[in-house]
Amino acid sequence: MPAIPLIPLRDDEIEFSAIRAQGAGGQNVNKVSSAVHLRFSIPDSSLPEAIKERLMALSDQRITSEGVVVIKAQTSRSQDQNRAEALERLQALVDSVAVLPKKRKATRPTFASKQRRLEGKASRSGVKRLRGKVGGGE
Description:
Radius of gyration: 27 Å
Shape: elongated
């Protein structure tokens, strides 16, 4: 059962086209157009402006430079299942930018953590010093 979408997508903004699937599958692959191409234009959609900006800022290979999301689903032999999978993947992409990441609060390292770091550096320095040549051959 798919999760409840954070931002629902309108069906009239999503364009589907059936294509032939690639790869192994025998005669079925050659005859039936069961794979699905989903196209969703971010600038033309009814999504809130903040969501549109965050989607456009993603460095996702599925988003073209014009802001069109192109998703290809071909794992199933059924066109309806591929259609549903493509929709789920689009919804997951939109939901991933719907929640703002928490702002990081700047903190200082504790005194104890500084001491542990310095002790680690000193012990590592000692190990490296012992790797050198043995002195006193003059």
